[in-house]
Amino acid sequence: MPRLLLVMRTRTYRAKAFLRAAERVGVDVTVAAEREQPLARLTHGATVALDFADPTEAQAEIKAFASEYPLTAVVGVDDDTTVLAAQLAAALGVPHNSIESVKAARYKDVMRLALAETEGVLSPAFWLLDTRDDPRIFAQRAPYPVVLKPLSLAASRGVIRANDPDEFVAAFAEVVSILGVSDLDAGDPGAMRIMVEEFIPGVEVALEGLLVDGLLKPLALFDKPDALDGPYFEETIYVTPSRLPPDAQELIVQSAQRAARALGLCRGPVHAELRLNDRGAWIVEVAARSIGGQCSSTLRFGDGFVDARTSLEELILRQAAGLDLQSLEREREPSGVMMIPIPAGGVLQSIQGVDLARSVDGITEVSITIPCGERVEPLPRGGRYLGFIFARAATAEAVEAALREAHARLSIEIVRP
Question: Which spans in 26-92 are helix H?
Answer without folding.
Answer: 55-68, 82-92
